[in-house]
Amino acid sequence: MRLLNAYTIRLESFNGAESDIPPYVILSHTWGDEEITFQDITQQPLENLQCREAFYKVQECCAQARRNGYGYVWIDTCCIDKTSSAELSEAINSMFKWYQQASLCYVFLSDFDTTLSYRFAHTSTGRVVHFLPADTSFFSSRWFTRGWTLQELIAPRHVSFFDKGWINFGSRDDELLDRLCHKTGISSHLFVEPRCKCPGPYPAVRDGVCVGCTALDTLPQTLDSFTVSVKMRWASSRVTTRKEDSAYCLLGLFNLNMPMLYGEGDKAFLRLQEAIIRQSKDHSILLWRGGFDITSYSRIPGCLAPSPSTFNKPIHILGRRVFRGTSSAFEFDSVGSITLMELTDTAMQMDLWICPCTVSFFNFMTGKQVERALSLGILDLAYDDDYLVRPALLLEQLGTINLYRRVYHMFVVPVDPRQAYGSCEISVDEGQSVPLTPKIISDRLPYPSTLKVSRHLNQATQRKVDILRHQSHDNVVSRRPSYRLGPKSGPVYLVQKAIEVRHTSNETGTLICTAISGVSQPHLSNYDVRTTQIPSPWTFGKCQHPGVDRYFGGIHFVSFSVDDQFSSDCSHNKEASVGQVVIIWGMHRKIKADDGGDTPWSPWCRVFNRLVFIKYVSTSAEETRSLEMCDALDSIKKQVRLQLCRSQLCSANWQHLRIPQDSEQKALFPSSCEDDWAEDQMFDIADDPAMNTHLAIRIVMTEGLGRTLYEIQFDIDQTPKAPQSYDV
Where is the Heterokaryon incompatibility domain (predicted)? Predict the structure, then answer.
């Protein structure tokens, strides 16, 4: 390592054994717009540096070190050559150790001034002020918000605080201790428990050993006694300039080393968690909570946290192993027990108690109560006020027997084994018994603020399960088919079957028809276009229609452009006819009165003029405008809007709705489960004064080798309209 000589203000290298490194003071600070760099110190004369404002910090740090009797200082801005990626990587991995083995750490708050409230006194070690016991004004400094300064507060054996004028106003280990612990959330035990056998002020550390008493420095063991979630909580409110540093600044707290890969972004924090799991096997790493602010609607969330900030709402578990006074022996309880936690390419393998549960909540966007069958993944942890009660995550089973993903990330469910059956209501903010007013995020799904969870512990089993590690696109895995969700879903194709134009009884021509799929839920595919991605999974919506088991499949806004290419008339130059329709379809079957088994599913479909459909299915002018302007929305908003429309039409209120079409009142839904409901038609879809454009559609379901596919087949033909007669 390099140290700055406090007398000459020149760098000196110490590349031999750690025991040969002289005692030194280390600086903790936040970077300003201008800093004295390694190149400045090595390439410019002191006379030039003294003219720069940034040199004041370096100069006063050296002066304070001399007053405290030290000949060397370490300052990151000028002791590391940041132009060398190899040196920067080594420095980041060694940073915690360098602060740990320093004799003294100066915390310099460049944005805090004690002279505004206090008069300083001169002493042999510099200027000092004595704070009032309740004064916390120094917490306004930016230093308390930065990620790197967390380890700089924890690692050194002694920490002194200085304001912008290098006036000392207290020590971490004395008068400021309680205030610092209250502000940062760090347990005072971390600072007051002995770090070696020395009775007085601690000497420096070399090779992890106190140079005074030659005993191991116990800081790494003390840090290891705190659970992962507790240490993540300390960092949850801190920020870094680069995303990667939110992970790299925590390496020392977990006694880890990692290669630096600047440019990987959020992946750095995922790599950190993976390294922690391999080392600690601590279930508390899963006790993070986050909503749709961190998880996109179009992605399946993983079980690893996306950032340290998701640990800022603590779950009050037993957060530490029992420490026996000054001994380095630890007494293991459930928090410290070693359980299976292994990583695969896609999942985390764990031994968990899995308990089936039912989750219900009110969906404020549809105005309905939603109920889901999920599982509780009960962690090997204990609440701090009741040793028997364990926290559990909400899990959804995926395509294989033991593959799960975590859902409803804002919630952690307490499980009390004293109650075989339990039902509890939990809210986003711990301790609130009333549901919060949910915030509507227009481009994302609604996230419930309150859940009701019911479970039977006598159905719980302990087994090895796989939980998806990272966020992934929702089409990476297929969800496990559930008969309760109705028919099996699959890709939906729009297929042209026959097109014909008839001008006279003896003359026929051909049409060029272009079908353009607009807003669609689920997505409409086309055989003429090669598919480049795995079809996204979707589910049918259950219709609340008495007397029939009916499911709503898709709703599709489609435009048909029909161009007459009748070859016998070379002068024919008529504009194409355009028709805009809405196609809805699904599956249904009869309900048997006795227990004679289920009847087969049969398809149903309906087609309507788009504008008339929107007018009759909208409940307000705002909803009408929303559907009319749906094409202008981005893809996620379109899906959400149609999903809400589909959910609304599934209610019993819409079962018997009739919509005007072709001089009659046409039913929105079938009135029976007969086979002829698989087809529908419109006699004229286009506003063409000369030709009738007839559209016929049908739904065809095809199954094979465990896969299901749906086709919306359409035929179009044109015939001349009858000439209008006029009364003379």
Answer: 24-152
For residue 53, count other CB atoms closer than 10 A to its CB: 9
Helix segments in 185-310, DSSP class H = 189-192, 219-224, 228-235, 245-248, 267-280
In the chain, the amino acid numbered 724 is Q
pLDDT: is 450 or 201 the higher one? Answer: 450
- pLDDT of residue 368 exceeding 90, the answer is no
Evaluate whether 28 touches 61 at the Cβ level (below 8 Å): no
Helix (H) or strand (E) holding 95: helix 85-100
Residue 225's pLDDT band (cuts 50, 70, 90): very high
Question: Which pTM value belongs to this model?
Answer: 0.69
Is residue 416 a contact partner of residue 386, using CB atoms and an 8 Å limit? yes
| Axis-axis angle for helices 621-628, 610-617 (nearest 10) | 150
- Taking each helix axis from N to C end, the angle separating 635-649 and 621-628, rounded to the nearest 10 degrees, works out to 130
Backbone conformation region of residue 260, classed left if phi is above 0, alpha if psi is from -120 to 50, else beta: beta
Query: Is the model's pLDDT at 324 over the cut of 70?
Result: no
Give exposure, 585-596, as e/b (b: 16+ Cβ within 10 Å): bbbbbeeeeeee
**Contact predicate 642/520, CB 8 Å:** yes
Confidence of residue 104 (pLDDT cuts 50, 70, 90): very high
Are the C-beta atoms of residues 561 and 692 closer than 8 Å to each other? no
8 Å CB contact between 147 and 158: no
The pLDDT value recorded for residue 305 is 93
625: which 2 tokens?
């405008």
Q: Any bridge partners for residue 582, and if so which? A: 557, 608
Two tokens at 152? 């700089």
Taking only the tens place, the pLDDT of each residue in 665-699 is 999 999 888 778 999 999 999 888 888 889 999 99
Q: What residues contact 543, with CB distance under 8 A and at least 6 apart?
A: 550, 551, 552, 586, 588, 649, 650, 655, 669
User: Per the structure block, which two tokens stand in for 407?
Assistant: 């859902």
104-108 and 450-456 as β-strands: parallel, antiparallel, unpaired? unpaired
Which of 184-188, 526-530, 641-645 comes out lowest in average pLDDT?
Answer: 526-530
Tell me which H or E stretch contains 192.
helix 189-192
Taking the chain, what is the end-to-end CA distance rounded to the nearest angstrom? Answer: 108
77 Cβ contact list (under 8 Å, min separation 6): 31, 35, 36, 37, 38
User: Which residues on adjacent β-strands are paired with residue 551?
Assistant: 542, 587
Q: Which two tokens stand for residue 8?
A: 């000459």
Q: Is the peptide bond before 522 cis (omega within 30 degrees of 0)?
A: yes
| Burial (0-12, 13-18, 19+ Cβ within 10 Å), 196 | buried
Contact criterion met (CB below 8 Å) for 684 and 633? no
User: Does residue 444 contact residue 297 with C-beta atoms inside 8 Å?
Assistant: yes
Task: Count CB neighbours of 687 within 10 A.
Answer: 10
> DSSP letter string over 120-170?
-EEETTEEE----TT--GGGGSGGGGBSHHHHHHHSSS-EEEE-TT--EEE
Tokens of 263: 């440019």
pLDDT over 50 (residue 25): yes
pLDDT score of 325 more than 70? no
Pair of tokens at residue 47 = 């006379």
- Residue indicated by tokens 């309906």: 606
- Strands of 565-706, DSSP E: 577-590, 602-609, 658-661, 664-667, 679-682, 691-704
